[in-house]
Each structure stands twice: as structure tokens, then as C-alpha cells.
Amino acid sequence: MRDLSKYQGIIPAFYACYDAEGKINPAGVRELTKWFIEKGVKGVYVGGSSGECIYQGKEERKIVLENVMAEAKGKLTVIAHVACNNTADSQELAAHAESVGVDAIAAIPPIYFHLPPYAIAKYWNDISAAAPNTDFIIYNIPQLAGVALNVPLLKEMLKNPRCIGVKNSSMPTQDIQMWLDEGAIVFNGPDEQLISGLAMGTIGGIGGTYGAMPELYVKLFECFNNGEIEKARAIQNECCRIIYKLCSTHGNMYATIKESMRRMGCPDCGSVRAPLAELIESDSPIVDECVSMIKAAIAKYC
Fold it and tell me: Which residues contact 137 (CB under 8 A, 6 or more apart)?
């Protein structure tokens, strides 16, 4: 029997760390990893949407993962998203991820061309084959990938003994129930409905705003598991309000998150990579509001 306990909990999506010139900052990656360890999260999800993978080259993505692993190995569960928009590069990243000792790899479906399910399954299985000793997780995010997981495709993938489950970022919680019914483990994706995902039976959550306020999500998970549902719901509602504020700037949400973290004394992750929008001067008061909301919520609930 495979031990899945290492996946049970709060797993922040790791943010891209850039220097002043917009290049990958290895030292920043290590500092952010150490900071997550200190915050008591279960693990990190490296190279996904929050990691701006779609705007990075494969060698950059290797550098990020190597520096995460230098600090995280044995201290955090590490899931590496390895998908590129072609099979060969994805396989290279998968093999690299296994070589540095990650716990699992993950992949979105190929984007742009709408491929038939059998082609998507082959793409995922080819990636998995490049890391034959590593768990594989499907990343279902149809609103961005343009392709939605369905039951027949999941059934086909679960024939692969390395495929353990789904990082589910679709909005309907009904999807979670369908994936669980097929025997997959499921990670809740939409941060706004973590409590709903846990109620449906997810093993934990992987989220893009977890890094902005890890204390709140760790406490939410703890309260839910302890049967303190009213407190868990209150924390979820406060997280949602903060998310709405983080999304209200001119700059991209990740630019807002990174600056909010910097103002709270967290590791400096730099800005975001073009074509993502950077913050502008009029965003500064909103960032201050985000910081105040996060600090107040942590003081109230943690």
C-alpha cells in the first residue's frame, strides 16, 4: 500500500522568485522555501501557475526546483509541475524532478490544440514514464488549460500505477466527488472553496494564495479536522475577502501577493514576468489594505 499521508495538508503553490533584472533568483528561492518550512505547511507545489511556469524556460525551471530541493528535502513534501507544451521537454523536466528526489510530478494537459482524450492520456503517460519511480498527479484547471478532465480520461489514467490523483482547480465541487468515486486522491484547487473541498473528501489543498497567508490556511485545515466547523468557515470567509482584495489591483494577483509579502517582512520574491502586469503606483494603497486584512485575520484566528 502506498503511503499517502505525506500529501495530507496545506501545500502552497510556490511563487516565482526573480532578481532586480527579472532573472531567476536562486537565493530567493531558498529563502522562500525556508520560510514555508517555518510556517508549518505540509509541502510546496513547484512550477505551476503561481510559479509562472508558462513564461519560463525549462532550464530556469530546473534551477528553481534544484534550489527548492536543497532546502526542502526531508522537511516538506514537494510536488513538481513539469508540463511543457511538448512531450520531449516535459519528459526532460520529469526525469530531472525524479533525479532530485521530489515526491510527485504533476502536469496540465497540452494547451492550444484541443487534443482528443487518447492523445492527452498518451502525453501524460509519456511524461510519467520518464519518472518511473515517482507519483503522478493530473492538474485539472480547465478555465486556463482549455481542456477539462472527465471520468473516462481519469479511468484511463488510473490504469497507470503511478497516477495517484488529481489537483482539481475546476470550480464545481461535484467534480471532486466524481474523481474520488474512481479511487483517485484529490487536492482542492480553488482557494475560495477549500472548506467545501475538504467537506467533499479532498486530502488537502494546493493553492496560489496560500503563500500570502499560510497561517490562515493551516489553521482552517486544523479546525476542519478538529470538528470546529464554524471557525473553519469564518476563516474561509476571511480568506475569500482577502483574495478579492488581492485581485483588485491593476497589477497581476501574484504581483500583489509578492509585494504584500514583502511589506510583511517575508522573503522578497521580486515582481512578475512579462506579459503579466506589474503593480503601478495607484496599487500601493490596495496592497496596504491587503497587508492589514491578512495581519488582522491572523491575529484574530491564529
Answer: 79, 104, 105, 106, 107, 163, 164, 165, 166, 167, 187
Please name the helix (run of DSSP H) or strand (run of DSSP E) that holds residue 106, with its range, or none: strand 104-107
- Active-site residue (options: 62, 167, 219, 245): 167
The Cα 30–Cα 48 span in angstroms is 17
Report residue 296 as a C-alpha cell. Answer: 488582522
SS3 at position 193: helix
Q: Give the separation between CA 77 and CA 8, rounded to whole angstroms.
A: 10
pLDDT single digits (tens) 7-48: 999 999 999 999 999 999 999 999 999 999 999 999 999 999
Residue 167 among the catalytic residues:
yes
pLDDT tens-place string over residues 133-183: 999 999 999 998 889 999 999 999 999 999 999 999 999 999 999 999 999
- State how far the Cα of 290 lies from the Cα of 238, in Å rounded to an integer: 11
Residue with cell 497567508: 213
Which residue in 139, 210, 217, 254 is the catalytic one?
Answer: 139
Sequence-distant (≥ 6) Cβ neighbours of residue 156 within 8 angstroms? 117, 118, 121
The 10 Å Cβ neighbour count of residue 213 is 31
**pTM of model > 0.90:** yes
Residues 6+ apart with CB under 8 A from 292: none
